[in-house]
Write a structure and sequence with these properties.
The structure holds two protein chains of two kinds.
Chain A lengths: L1 H15 L2 E4 L10 H6 L1 H18 L4 H22 L9 H22 L2 H4 L1 H6 L6 H5 L1 H21 L11 H25 L3 H14 L15 H4 L5 H12 L6 H32 L1
Helix pairs in contact in A: 3-9, 4-5, 4-9, 5-9, 5-10, 5-13, 10-13, 10-14
Chain B lengths: L5 E15 L7 H10 L7 E15 L3 E6 L5 H8 L7 E7 L2 E5 L11 H11 L4 H15 L14 H13 L5 E5 L7 H15 L4 E5 L3 H7 L2 E6 L2 E7 H12 L11 E2 L6 E7 L8 E3 L4 E14 L2 E8 L4 E6 L9 E12 L7 E11 L2 E5 L4 E6 L33
Parallel strand pairs in B: 3-7, 3-8, 5-6, 6-7, 12-19
Antiparallel strand pairs in B: 1-2, 1-4, 8-9, 10-11, 11-13, 13-16, 14-15, 14-17, 17-18, 17-19
The chains are: A mainly alpha, B alpha/beta.
Chain lengths: ~290, ~425
């Protein structure tokens, strides 16, 4: 009996042998989901590394993650609320600024960490094989952790200011998803280009800066002149950022048409990002 | 050989690199400007085949050593087979789980502790988390750093660093293993230990492809040898036979007038290095006892403070017989940036006539930043440098000596 069991084992083993075929890739690329799945523990390892480094190296640690959005929100509240006297519909301007900051920080944080990720891991890319997509994907958990910290701050602020979010809060995760997809898609393109052209890392922050003023971060969409709004909302970030504010504070009314538009754009951007990344991938080790 | 006994097969495998004749634009602004100036121009480039028409079959459990000079295609083949880079032509089949033991310490994070690095590095090498957890004690045991497991590895000595990195890599559980120059690390004792570990690995029935400039290690570990020349596989056979072909083919390269600096490819900082004579011309033959002059080109994308360069000279068995490091204090190199040329003179190279090889390493504190990866072979030839009429004598090193002798006239007792 024991013998036949043994034989069964070997047969199973040899059936499970994985065959790797190496040949030049042509035409459109696939995502290699199988490879990603096989290396899923590496995603975990990258995430753990990023989070540990981020929270260990800085003297202030978590405090910094809490302080950063608070300080920026404070500055925005002073500039837009106090000096420019933007409309606030009676809501404390600090809350308006902070709720805008949440969506924006997620976008900017993810983009600014995904873009340089490949170059930062050049040593690995040059010397060892693993699905390269894991490098940019691996930074997302640490960005999300930052985001959850600021979500915690938001909840504290809501309690302090005695604001109760309505059922609109259900749209919040959807907006987060749109913002994540947008930043990931652009970041994927940026990171592939940064391998070839190192100045991409300096160009991206500049455009991100411009984009911030074109997004309802320090002000609400209500402050944008009505005739300009159809064009303003072409920025796919605008509606989700404002909808997050609405979800928490109940300010204004989400424009579902534009929210849907943002979602479609975000899917397209991620798709384009993946295509660019995968088709540049075959050259990474040669040029990085 | 039936098909399920073959672990690796390659048919017509080739890899071409395009070498641009003008400087490649490395910023997007430059690239765009160039495009605007000459919208239809294509950058003139030349195809360089680092690997061409490679056919072979490697049986399951076979241990193959790759031989060849720098740039012959050994490393490119490993890169293609380990999927770091794509081939330009041809196809290869690998059956079984593939792992690489390339460059000890790749992916180590100085800020993380030893324990954290074991898991990170294991995952990078393709190990599952529970697999690493299962072999964790074994890895720690082999590395001998258990007391410092929870210390960030930036505080490790370079020896500990290397031992831990090798320990992780050596415990990879794969059917096919690629090994590239990993044995030339650590002190003599650890080298012996790691060579022993490689022996275990070799006898465990795995298929191994092995690249090293240490021909002794190749001879002891490998059963078959592939000899590469100019990107082509020119000889495949039993290891002793291949080594003989290799030695015969490689030796004349030391002489001749077309000597050039060794170009270092795919490294972060090193670009080329060379052994030169007193006029700065490349040379590969040094008269015994004369200075060894080394020149290297290094590039730094960012300014680097207090880099230390180390030159290693190995004998033909791969034993490091001499090392020289740039100073740590006082005359230390304070900082370098951009393209830099490093020069080193080892006065009166004290080595007996024979064949040697040179390689360089760049470190900063306990961190190893880069190494040349390839070696530069040179010969010390017999010469009467010390003007004592002898030239070579017994031993592995030579030194100028002064002798004095006089007859002590015994005090005549008168």
């Amino acid at each position: 009996m024991a013998l036949s069991e043994n034989i069964d084992m070997t047969v199973q083993n040899s059936a499970a042998v994985e065959i790797v075929v190496i040949k030049p890739s042509r035409g459109l690329v696939d995502l290699d989901l199988k490879g990603l799945w096989r290396f899923r523990d590496l995603l975990h390892a990258f995430a753990v590394r990023d989070i540990r480094l981020r929270y260990r190296q800085t003297a202030l640690g978590v405090t910094w993650v809490v302080l950063q959005p608070l300080l920026s929100a404070l500055i925005f509240a002073v500039v837009f609320g106090f000096i420019a006297k933007m409309p606030s519909q009676g809501m404390p301007y600090f809350l308006i600024a902070f709720s805008g900051m949440m969506g924006w920080t997620l976008f900017q944080g993810n983009l600014s960490r995904v873009t340089p990720s490949l170059v930062a891991n050049a040593g690995l890319v040059r010397k060892i094989y693993f699905p390269r997509l894991l490098v940019p994907l691996g930074v997302i958990p640490s960005v999300l952790l930052d985001f959850f910290v600021s979500l915690g701050v938001m909840i504290v602020l809501l309690v302090v200011y005695e604001v109760m979010p309505g059922p609109g809060i259900l749209l919040f995760p959807f907006c987060v998803l749109i913002i994540l997809l947008l930043s990931l898609g652009i970041g994927l393109m940026g990171s592939s280009l940064a391998v070839k052209y190192r100045d991409v890392q300096h160009i991206v922050p500049f455009f991100v800066q411009l984009l911030m003023y074109a997004s309802p971060v320090g002000y609400t969409i209500a402050a944008v002149p009505a005739w300009l709004r159809p064009y303003y909302l072409l920025n796919p970030l605008a509606e989700p950022i404002d909808t997050i504010r609405w979800a928490f504070l109940g300010l204004g009314e989400p424009n579902y048409l534009y929210l849907g538009y943002s979602f479609v754009v975000s899917l397209l951007v991620v798709w384009a990002g993946l295509i660019v990344f995968r088709s540049c991938e075959r050259e990474f080790a040669d040029v990085i | 050989m039936s098909s399920d006994e073959i672990a690796i097969s390659a048919r017509g495998l080739g890899k071409a690199y395009h070498i641009a004749h003008q400087r490649r634009q490395s910023t997007m602004t430059e690239a765009l400007l160039q495009r605007l100036k000459n919208p239809f121009a294509r950058a003139p480039s030349e195809e360089m085949w680092a690997l061409k028409d490679i056919d072979f079959d490697i049986a399951r459990g076979d241990i193959v050593g790759l031989l060849g000079r720098n740039g012959a295609g050994k490393s490119t083949l490993l890169k293609v087979l380990s999927r770091i880079t794509e081939p330009t032509t041809g196809i290869a089949h690998l059956s079984g789980r593939v792992g690489s033991l390339i460059e000890v310490g790749t992916g180590f994070q100085p800020e993380l502790t030893g324990r954290e690095n074991i898991f990170l590095n294991g995952a990078i090498l393709g190990m599952r988390r529970r697999e690493i957890a299962k072999r964790f004690d074994e890895i720690v045991d082999f590395s001998g750093v258990e007391r410092f497991l929870d210390t960030p590895v930036k505080h490790y000595s370079s020896g500990m660093y290397v031992r831990l990195a090798f320990a992780v890599a050596a415990h990879l559980d794969t059917d096919i293993l690629f090994v590239d120059e990993v044995l030339s690390v650590g002190d003599a004792e650890f080298q012996k230990k790691s060579l022993g570990k490689m022996d275990d690995v070799a006898n465990s029935g795995r298929t191994i492809i092995f690249v090293s400039h240490n021909t002794t290690a190749i001879e002891t570990l490998c059963r078959r040898g592939f000899f590469f020349q100019g990107g082509r596989l020119v000889h495949a056979g039993p290891i002793a036979e291949t080594l003989a072909v290799y030695h015969k083919a490689v030796k004349p390269a030391l002489a001749g007038d077309s000597l050039q600096p060794v170009i270092v490819r795919d490294r972060e900082h090193f670009r080329s290095f060379d052994v030169v004579d007193e006029f700065g011309e490349s040379t590969r033959i040094l008269p015994m006892g004369t200075p060894l002059r080394i020149k290297a080109k290094v590039e730094f994308a960012e300014k680097i403070d207090y880099p230390v360069f180390i030159a290693y000279v190995e004998d033909d068995s791969g034993q490091v017989v001499l090392s020289a490091a740039s100073p740590k204090s006082e005359q230390a190199i304070t900082s370098l940036s951009g393209m830099a040329e490093v020069g080193c003179v080892i006065e009166h190279l004290p080595l007996a006539p024979g064949e040697y090889s040179l390689h360089l390493r760049l470190v900063q504190g306990p961190l190893r930043l880069d190494e040349t990866g390839c070696v530069l072979p040179f010969v010390v030839r017999d010469a009467d440098t010390f003007k004592d009429g002898w030239g070579a004598r017994k031993g592995i090193c030579v030194a100028r000596s002064r002798w004095k002798a006089e007859s002590k006239v015994a005090d005549a007792v008168s």
